[in-house]
């Protein structure tokens, strides 16, 4: 298994993969690569829906 953490995006996990949510529900995803939300903006958590693209952080001065 390989996990890739992207700086401005999701966490990519080479699948298939079982994801167990905080409520104990197990979700099986058989895709070759699964994108998991790292920004907490996705409406389909734990899976990424690319919401991070619409909410880019503005760099702070100094």
Mean pLDDT: 85
Estimate what percentage of residues fall within beta strands.
Answer: 25-35%
- For this entry, what is the oligomeric state of its chains? single chain
| Largest beta-sheet details | 3 strands, antiparallel
User: Helix segment count?
Assistant: 0
**What portion of residues is helical?**
under 10%
CA-based shape: globular
The structure class reads mainly beta
**Strands of the biggest beta sheet: in what spatial order?**
1-2-5
Number of strands: 5
Order of helices and strands: EEEEE
- Detail the poorly predicted runs: none
Whole-angstrom Rg: 13 Å
Separation of the first and last Cα atoms: 39 Å
Structure description:
The protein has 62 residues and is mainly beta. The chain is 0% helix and 31% strand. The strands form 2 sheets. It has a 3-stranded antiparallel sheet, with no helix packed on it. Strands 3-4 form a two-stranded antiparallel sheet. A hairpin with a 5-residue loop joins strand 1 (3-5) and strand 2. It is globular. The relative contact order is 0.22.
SSE layout and pairing:
Elements: E1 3-5, E2 11-14, E3 17-20, E4 26-29, E5 33-36
Antiparallel strand pairs: 1-2, 2-5, 3-4
Short description:
By secondary structure, the protein is mostly beta strands. The protein has strands at 3-5, 11-14, 17-20, 26-29, 33-36.
Looking at this protein, list some descriptive labels.
mainly beta, three-stranded antiparallel beta sheet, 31% strand
